[in-house]
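subagent[fold] <- orchestrator: predict structure for attached chain, return tokens only, no commentary.
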Amino acid sequence: MKDLVVVGLIALTGMLVGGVYTTWKTAKGMAVVLLVLALLAGGGAVAWYVSNR
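subagent[fold] -> orchestrator:
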């Protein structure tokens, strides 16, 4: 179960980074918001993985 959360957060990070890539040319404000969320999700995945090792 612990690994499933890490995989889910990594998948969410990837989807958010894809959103950043897609929206960068048209809506930079939204892209920055998505980037912040991607960084939080990625950081959460790393923190979850390290804390449950």
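orchestrator: received. Logging for downstream: Helices lie at 2-23, 28-51. The two ends are 13 Å apart (CA to CA).
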